[in-house]
Amino acid sequence: MILVCGATGDLGGRVVRLLAAQGREVRALVRPGTDASELEAEGVEVVRGDLREEGTLGPALAGVDTVVTTANAVTRVLEGSVDLTIKDVDDAGNRNLVRAADEAGVQRFVFVSVAGLSEEEARRAPLAAAKLATERALHTSSMQVVIVRPDMFQEVWLSPVAGIDAAAGKAMVYGRGETPHRYVAMDDVAALCAHLAVAHDPPGLVEFGGPEALTRTQVVAAFDAATGRKLKVQHVPRPVLAVASRLLAVPKPALASLMGMALHSDSHPSTWDDAPLRAVGVEPRAATTYINQTAAALR
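Structure (tokenized):
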């Protein structure tokens, strides 16, 4: 039995469907009140519980061999949700899940973190701090730990949520915008997570990105070419990112995380590649393919 947490989210939903399509016995942990009708219609077992309340996790973990968690609050908070926070979900919630899973006798725990995670980034971004705390909690457990560290998601960092709004004709460039990163597709991350959940002997850490290394400036140029018009660019200097991430850490931790992680990525290029994806038979989607598809949808 595989339990997927975050199953109604963009990434978690993909993982659940892949596992179900493979005929795996999969269960989805879904918060009370959240619509899970699509999962139920596809034959996925849905159990209600909340990471923020450790006492509700027992029924979801009963008989579970492997946990896969993609649960996070950041994107929903940035999109306007007011009932979730990084502190409650990504920090305390994930650690509640680690403790409960360990006590329930779960054998394997697959956790989606972020590429290049470090103490430095954790000081700048509440989300990174929460991810690091969860990784440390996992390494003190008795479970087999698999840390999945993808580079920035195309669907997030190349979208209006992170400052690139092709429909509105504008884009935000963080810092100097000259540091390359391997933006990765959620479908590809989901495929790797589904593989690692059932692999015979998975590695303890998998750090990876997409097939194409692009700077933020190159991303904007690719959108210009794909849309046929020049996006209006707003530059956010590194000192502004540093101050904003610090001042917003308490009142707006999701926005502080965006600023802090943008600053970190602008000064730390990717040192990983797409080899882990290709090794399990995934042909990764290039960032420019995503950009072209986004532009085509606007026509």
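The two ends are 44 Å apart (CA to CA). Residues 87-103 form the longest helix (17 residues).
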